[in-house]
């Protein structure tokens, strides 16, 4: 990595002048990290980073994908040990050698990659390795199942989510898993709570509930570290913000004294004035894909739409409205009960993703960990996985030079932060893993591409590159479907938008002529159009 940074602004980590309730009597913050560095083989993830957390504050950590946010949090929670630097917790220097260690000290973390055990129940996951026991003083051998469920239910109720604690985690949606992780951290009664992108897959309403819980925790004196790429939602809960860039400490400010634009320019090292690129493509009249009367029991009914050459069609709607399910069915990941899908005038009979891929339909899933990546394999293999023919020679053997070129091209195009194309994907930051999946499907050169929440968890600069790529694909004549819960993104990027409500399309609107309010009316079922 590059040369050493300029010294961090001294003022940023001096002890606060006013010894309010946020500080202990000595004026020490609850947690303080000084000069933290972390090196992985070939990667300097953090150099001389400072961070402090007060009681009863929400402290945001911002930075681009790969800036070092998760690594810093994993150091606080004992997943990693720092290569250098000190951690002062409640006035004493501490070394946490595992999460168990940090949990015992009152530090809980919700990881960016969810870590639930699919075949165990929700309650078992919440109390994993800490199950209440029967017997004298709860020290017996057998798990007190009744108490386990009741305790778990209490945590879930506190979050206002309606999930049966007895059901297995397998089959829960990403958002529900997120809520279970949050319930788990609440059950720990921590003094420090670290949330690494907790809202990235939550609905508006779930986010509201989470914010309420955060406010309650704050009021009871818990120090909360909050990591998110959704900067605009921070104003509601964040007290201070620390920015990291390339593993280096940039600044710490009171949130009230700064702006989202200022934070963004610190994150990327320059100011970003455009949020969406100008569209260079206009859709033609030629229809690439048409869906008619698609139904699948219990998930969607009578869904029809057309997608034109060079068009970006939005799928808007509330979470659970059936957008992902329709895309998955067209992609052959789930069976259809009724309806036909036509590609370039030919009716398809797709029964598996393999068929869909062969026909030229690609689907970038929202649940990237489960569906998109071979996590232990290197960057180059993942990138070319969906299109081995293009990197094989005529004997069907992999042409490594071709593969390396393809992988390097996409690493550059998407600005993926990795020490090399041989790095196992599991060692990349969350956002960079997402970019790999996008690269993989781009390399596949499909005719129709479904992007399901493609910018979730991706930093602002990278978002813009993904939008540019979508536009470039459309300009090449590909039909793009953008499934997104972010209305500004739908309005900024699409030509038309199909709005879903409870498994049906309630309207298809011309993006230029519609508004956020109108889309919301269709999404909530108050408006409905014939076509
Ligand atoms: N175990 C590891 N081995 C090698 N490199 C790692 C490991 N963990 C993280 N890194 C690297 O350290 C850097 C910082 O990663 P980190 O996960 O902290 O980023 P981040 O700020 O959380 O990004 P994102 O917003 O994408 O989640 C990245 O370049 C990443 O590839
Ligand atoms: Mg991260």
In words, what does this structure look like?
This protein has 531 residues and is of the alpha/beta class. It folds into three domains: 1-105 and 230-273, 3-Layer(aba) Sandwich (Rossmann fold), CATH 3.40.50; 280-360 and 447-531, Rossmann fold; 376-445, no CATH class. Helices cover 30% and strands 23% of the residues. It has helices spanning 69-76, 99-104, 122-126, 145-159, 174-187, 204-219, 260-268, 323-330, 353-359, 368-371, 379-384, 400-413, 430-444, 460-475, 487-493, 516-523, and strands at 31-40, 43-53, 58-62, 84-89, 92-93, 107-110, 192-196, 223-227, 240-245, 248-254, 287-296, 300-308, 312-317, 338-343, 346-347, 361-364, 448-452, 479-483, 496-501, 504-510. The strands form four sheets. A six-stranded mixed β-sheet has the order 6-7-8-3-9-10, sandwiched between helices. Strand 9 and strand 10 (248-254) form a beta hairpin. It is globular. The N and C termini lie far apart (55 Å). Bound molecules: adenosine-5'-triphosphate and magnesium ion.
Mean pLDDT, rounded to whole units?
Answer: 86
Q: State the CATH superfamily name of the largest domain.
A: P-loop containing nucleotide triphosphate hydrolases
| Count of separate structural domains | 3
Query: What is the second-level CATH architecture of the largest domain?
Result: 3-Layer(aba) Sandwich
Q: What fraction of residues sit in β-strands?
A: 15-25%
Counting helices, strands and paired strands, the structural category is: alpha/beta
Radius of gyration from the alpha-carbon trace, in angstroms? 24 Å
């Amino acid at each position: 990595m590059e040369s050493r940074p300029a010294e961090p602004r001294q003022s940023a980590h001096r002890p606060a002048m006013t010894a309010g309730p946020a500080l202990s009597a000595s004026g020490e913050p609850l947690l303080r990290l000084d000069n933290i560095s972390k090196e992985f083989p070939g990667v300097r993830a953090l150099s001389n980073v400072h961070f402090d957390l007060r009681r009863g504050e929400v402290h945001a950590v911002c930075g681009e994908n790969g800036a070092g946010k998760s690594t810093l949090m994993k150091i606080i929670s004992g997943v990693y040990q720092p290569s250098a630097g000190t951690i002062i917790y409640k006035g004493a220097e501490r070394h946490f050698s595992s999460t168990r260690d940090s949990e015992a000290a009152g530090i809980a973390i919700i990881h960016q990659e969810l870590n639930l055990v699919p075949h165990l129940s929700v309650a078992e996951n919440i109390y994993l390795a800490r199950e209440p026991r029967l017997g004298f003083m709860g020290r017996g051998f057998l798990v007190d199942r009744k108490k386990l469920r009741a305790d778990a239910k209490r945590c879930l109720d506190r979050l206002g989510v309606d999930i049966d604690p007895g059901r297995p985690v397998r089959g829960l949606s990403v958002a529900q898993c997120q809520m279970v992780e949050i319930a788990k951290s609440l059950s720990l009664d921590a003094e420090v709570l670290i949330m690494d992108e907790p809202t990235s897959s939550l609905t508006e309403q779930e986010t509201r509930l989470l914010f309420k819980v955060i406010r309650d925790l704050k009021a009871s004196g818990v120090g909360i570290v909050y990591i998110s790429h959704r900067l605009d939602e921070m104003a509601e809960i964040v007290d201070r913000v620390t920015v990291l860039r390339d593993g280096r400490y940039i600044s710490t400010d009171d949130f009230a004294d700064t702006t989202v634009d200022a934070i963004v320019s610190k994150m990327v090292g320059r100011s970003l004035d455009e949020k969406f690129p100008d569209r260079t493509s206009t859709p033609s009249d030629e229809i690439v894909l048409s869906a008619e009367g698609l139904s699948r029991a219990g998930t969607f009914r009578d869904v029809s739409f057309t997608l034109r050459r060079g068009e970006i069609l939005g799928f808007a709607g509330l979470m659970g409205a059936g957008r992902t399910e329709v895309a998955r069915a067209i992609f052959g990941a789930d069976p259809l009960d009724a309806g036909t899908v036509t590609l370039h005038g030919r009716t398809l009979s797709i029964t598996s993703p393999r068929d869909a891929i062969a026909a030229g339909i690609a689907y970038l899933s929202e649940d990237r960990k489960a569906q998109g990546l071979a996590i232990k394999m290197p960057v180059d293999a993942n990138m070319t996985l969906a299109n081995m023919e293009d990197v094989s020679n005529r004997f069907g053997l992999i042409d490594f030079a071709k593969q390396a070129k393809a992988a390097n091209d996409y690493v550059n195009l998407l600005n993926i932060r990795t020490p090399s194309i041989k790095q196992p994907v599991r060692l990349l930051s969350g956002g960079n893993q997402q970019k790999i999946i996008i690269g993989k499907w781009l390399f596949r050169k499909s005719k129709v591409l479904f992007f399901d929440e493609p910018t979730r968890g991706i930093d602002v600069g990278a978002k813009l590159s993904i939008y540019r790529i979508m536009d470039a694909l459309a300009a090449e004549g590909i039909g793009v479907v953008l499934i997104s819960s972010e209305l500004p993104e739908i309005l900024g990027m699409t030509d038309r938008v199909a709005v879903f409500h409870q498994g049906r399309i309630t309207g298809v609107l011309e993006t230029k002529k519609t508004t956020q309010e109108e889309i919301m009316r269709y999404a909530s079922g108050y408006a409905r159009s014939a076509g």
